[in-house]
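User: Teach me something about this protein's shape.
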Amino acid sequence: MSISLLLVPLAVATVAAVHASSADRDDDGRLVCQVQTRMRDANLLAAALRDTDAVVTVHGDELTATWAGVSADFRRGADGIWTAHLTGQVDEERAVGIVRAVDAAYGRQVQRAVLDRLRAQAPAAGLRLESEQITEDAAVRLVFAVEGRSA
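Assistant: First, the predicted structure itself:
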């Protein structure tokens, strides 16, 4: 089976929400679904795909991910919206599930990148990391002290 997914950025998601769970057919008769996502950065997408146990191959602006029985080609259009064309042992429900798992992994990659940037840039901004806590819902709480200031 073959399914194509249109990965709609969350910024556009409210406009596309009506179509988010609907399926259509393209000119070649392939099933095309829209799935809301936050994916923008190709490097973070590749890392997220690897986090879902995919074997990832990068070809310029295209990514190919392969799981057991399923292959997905990710391409970004001129509008910045990613599409994923899935082939193999996949139906609409599994395709949407795969993309949602990748989107969740992408969110964790974004969180990791932002935390790394905060830790790296804090000293230059006169901040010292005093504590870091990961909550039950995987949120991260950082407490910084301002260096060189007296009360």
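Now, about its shape. Confidence is low (pLDDT under 50) at residues 9-22. The chain has one domain: 2-119. If you'd like, I can walk through any region in more detail.
User: That's plenty for now, thanks!
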